[in-house]
Amino acid sequence: MYSAPFEIHVHGDVPLRSDVVLAQVQEALKPLWTYVGAKSLAQAARSSYEEEPGIRFNAKEHVLQMCWTVSGDDDFRQAVEEACMGLNDIAAAGAPIEVSFYDAAFDEDDEGAEDEESRDDFMMCFVGPTPAAILQVQRDMLVRDVSHLMERHFEASELDPVVHAIDQLFTNRFDALVNSMQLGKPPRGSGGGPSSGHGGGRKPRHLH
Q: Which ranges in 1-130 belong to alpha helices (H)?
């Protein structure tokens, strides 16, 4: 009997255009709900954990909310990539989506677990209506993370040169996109996100 090697958690809030309807959200997320063998988004929207809200389309606020855990394999990455491409078409602004892979066979409570290394992994995806919107949310996240780290050692006012350097890096990347004529193509929904690799301390799931 097949046993899925990972428990996979997808987390993120994606702002959607005001004209987007549920049918468009279902179509964009089709790679995810077909991955789990469902016949519709509604059938797949519930998380494996009751305390998680799962996948919700908030039509009033025009936001797609995801806090959803399913069982799966490494091939789930492809489903996420395809879903991100679909979300690019209906997103109103750039947004990050976190995808965490938890080794289903790794048990921290097992006495022998100290000698083993879990296959936990993590990927960050980004969606947005344009490449510029995606780069903007990547930039904002990097500035926040770097500032948080460096403020342990420096005053916030001392970090202006660091923020300027980050801005220049993203300006260069955007200019390269323009020069390579990539703006005429649909923006990729992921990339540029850090990966935590394997093993190490387990990243806690988002619980609401």
A: 22-28, 30-35, 41-44, 76-88
Task: Outline where DSSP puts E strands in 29-164.
Answer: 54-58, 63-72, 95-103, 121-127
- What backbone phi and psi angles, to 5 degrees, belong to 40? -160, 165
Contact status, residue 80 vs residue 126, Cβ threshold 8 Å? no
Residue type, 33: W
What is the rounded distance in angstroms from the CA atom of residue 111 to the CA atom of residue 36? 33
Write out pLDDT tens, residues 139-167: 999 999 999 999 999 998 899 999 999 88
Q: How far apart are CA 166 and CA 146, in angstroms?
A: 10
Does this model's pTM top 0.90? My answer is no
Question: Which tokens hold the place of 23?
Answer: 């049918």
